[in-house]
TrEMBL record:
A Pfam family reported for this protein in Swiss-Prot or TrEMBL: STAS
Protein name listed in UniProt: STAS domain-containing protein
STAS domain mapped to chain residues: 168-279
Highest taxon, organism lineage: Bacteria
InterPro entries for the chain: Bact_StressResp_Reg (IPR051932), STAS_dom (IPR002645), STAS_dom_sf (IPR036513)
Organism: Streptomyces aquilus
Length: 298
């Protein structure tokens, strides 16, 4: 049977809205057993029912507005909030967007079954019209959830990237008043910014007078990264700490010279040990080798 959507959509959409509102409790209970809800709310089924009830009410609001194909319809805000937390949990559990999409698609069948039960005649035109509108609405819901899932995935990747950058730029205290950042791997602008922020925070927290930037493990730098390092040194100096750059490789030294970057005002040392020795000496601390037992006897 063919349904003329343009003629019946507003009326049928209102009918669908009333159905969703009237049957929200049954819908919520059936959704609570669906994979999307049951895999998220593993501790309390009541929470799954409550979440399903909120989504059903939100879809009823969308249907009432007649904007069943509009992902920007006001009712979908609640869907984004409610299902967004659920899909975020699924994403963090390792589920892909396509897997989540299949679970969202599984929400339509329980609602369609309840809708069919509203009509005595299986051939009722009103029932078919409502089913068409329900299919449209659930399809839009799927798009909204996918949009939310992808955004949640991007935010998760951004957070993990930030955490990796922070882990990759540890600030350690070598001696009282001496902090160091031993850098290993590729140094780009983002990581250079993290280095600057971490080092300046460490200078404040530990009242450091000397800060060592050890780039022994950095294979190359470009002009932008070199400028970032110089800014870091200048910022540390403004905060009352002397910054020492150690471990400059031959290739990096040639790059800096080739780029014409002036490091004349920056204190450098061959390695981390040399930088630490300099900082200790400046503080009046002398480190000497422990005499051996044989040497004492002689």
């Amino acid at each position: 049977m063919y349904v003329v959507e343009q003629d019946t959509a507003p009326e049928v959409a209102e009918q669908l809205s009333e159905f969703l509102k009237r049957r929200r409790e049954q819908i919520a209970h059936r959704w609570a057993d669906a994979a999307l809800f049951s895999n998220v709310f593993t501790v309390s089924r009541d929470e799954a029912v409550e979440a399903g009830r909120a989504v059903a009410e939100a879809l009823a609001e969308v249907a009432r507005s007649g904007r069943l194909e509009d992902i920007e319809a006001p009712g979908f805000d609640m869907v984004r909030d409610q299902l967004g937390r659920m899909t975020s949990a699924r994403t963090q559990s390792g589920y892909t967007p396509s897997q989540i999409a299949r679970e969202v698609a599984g929400l339509r069948a329980p609602v369609a079954a309840l809708l069919r039960a509203e009509f005595d005649d299986p051939a009722d035109e009103g029932m078919h019209a409502c089913l068409v509108q329900l299919t449209v609405l659930m399809g839009t819901l799927r798009l909204v959830v996918m949009e939310t899932t992808i955004n949640a995935g991007e935010e998760l990747i951004a957070r993990q990237r930030q955490q990796l950058l922070e882990v990759a730029t540890p600030v350690i205290e070598l001696w009282e008043g001496v902090v160091a950042v031993p850098l290993i791997g590729t140094l780009d602008s983002s990581r250079s910014q993290i280095v600057m922020e971490s080092l300046l925070e460490a200078i404040v927290e530990r009242r450091a007078r000397y800060a060592i930037l050890d780039i022994t493990g950095v294979p190359t730098v470009d002009s932008l990264v070199a400028q970032h390092l110089m800014k870091t040194v200048a910022a540390a100096r403004l905060m009352g700490a002397e910054c020492i750059v150690s471990g400059i490789r031959p290739a990096i030294a040639q790059t800096i010279v080739h780029l014409g970057i002036d490091l004349g005002s920056i204190l450098t040392r061959a390695g981390l040990a040399d930088a630490l020795a300099y900082a200790l000496t400046q503080q009046g601390i002398a480190v000497s080798a422990r005499p051996t037992a044989g040497a004492d006897s002689r």
